[in-house]
Design goal:
With 221 residues, this protein is α+β, with helices and mostly antiparallel strands. It is built from 7 helices and 11 strands.
C-alpha cells in the first residue's frame, strides 16, 4: 500500500525531535517529495526501499558541516586543484530504490566528468568522491551500507567528539588514518582543528588552518 502524504506545509509541522520516519512509501512518492521539498532549506530526505526519513538539522549540525566544508574548500584552493561542491545534492538511484542528501559532497577526482553537466544521473555518472556527514541527531536510515551501494569512495563522519575517515574497498568501508582525496591529511590533523574550533572564532580558525596547510605544502614540495 502506498501512503498518501499531506502537503509539505502540513507534514513539516509533524517533524518532532527533528526527525519523522514514514513507511510504505513508493519510489514515485519519494520523487514527488524531493520535488515538492527542493526549495525547503533545512530539510533532508533519505529513502531506503520503502522507508522515508525527513530530518531538520539543528544548529550544531549545521555549523560543523559548514566548518568542515570550509576546510575542504581551503585545501582545494591552496593546492590549486579543481573541485565541484554540491552541498546536499540529492543522490538517488531508482535501480537501488535508495536516495539520500549528504550534509556536504564534493567531486574532486571525478570533477572533470561532472562540472558542466546540467543534471547528474547516478545510474550512469560517478557518485561524489567525498561526502561529509555530521552524526549529531542520528539518522535511522543513513549508514555506511547506503553509501557503499552508491559506490562513494570516501566518507568523513563527525559526531562532535570524533571524526573518522572511511575508504570504500570491495564494497566495504574501512577506517583510515589518511584522506583518500587529500593523502597528506591525517584524521588527527582535522581532529586538532575541530577541537580548536571550540575556543576559536571561524575566521581565525580558517586562517590558522590555511597557515598550517601552506606549511604542509612547502614541506612536501
Amino acid at each position: 500500500m502506498t501512503l498518501t502524504l499531506p502537503h509539505p506545509q502540513t507534514l513539516e509541522k509533524s517533524v518532532i525531535n527533528n526527525t519523522v520516519l514514514l513507511t510504505n512509501i513508493s519510489w514515485q512518492t519519494y520523487e514527488s517529495m524531493v520535488q515538492d521539498w527542493e526549495e525547503k532549506a533545512g530539510y533532508h530526505l533519505t529513502y531506503n526501499q520503502g522507508f522515508l526519513e525527513i530530518m531538520s538539522p539543528l544548529k550544531p549540525h549545521e555549523e560543523n558541516k559548514k566548518i568542515i566544508g570550509r576546510f575542504v574548500e581551503s585545501m582545494t584552493e591552496e593546492l590549486e586543484i579543481e573541485v565541484y561542491s554540491l552541498g546536499s545534492l540529492t543522490c538517488k538511484r531508482k535501480d537501488l530504490l535508495r536516495g539520500f542528501e549528504p550534509d556536504e559532497c564534493y567531486y574532486i577526482q571525478n570533477e572533470d566528468k561532472i562540472w558542466n553537466k546540467e543534471q547528474i544521473n547516478l545510474e550512469q555518472d560517478p557518485p561524489p568522491d567525498l561526502i561529509i556527514e555530521i552524526d549529531i541527531t542520528s539518522s535511522s536510515l543513513k549508514n555506511l551500507d547506503l553509501y557503499a551501494d552508491f559506490g562513494i569512495p570516501e566518507v568523513w563522519l563527525y559526531n562532535q567528539e570524533k571524526i573518522k575517515f572511511y575508504h570504500l574497498e570491495n564494497k566495504t568501508y574501512l577506517e583510515s588514518e589518511n584522506s583518500l582525496a587529500f593523502p597528506f591529511l591525517k584524521v588527527s590533523d582535522l581532529a586538532y582543528f575541530l577541537e580548536l574550533k571550540k575556543t576559536t572564532k571561524e575566521t581565525s580558525l580558517i586562517k590558522q588552518f590555511r597557515q598550517w596547510l601552506k606549511t604542509k605544502i612547502n614541506q612536501s614540495s
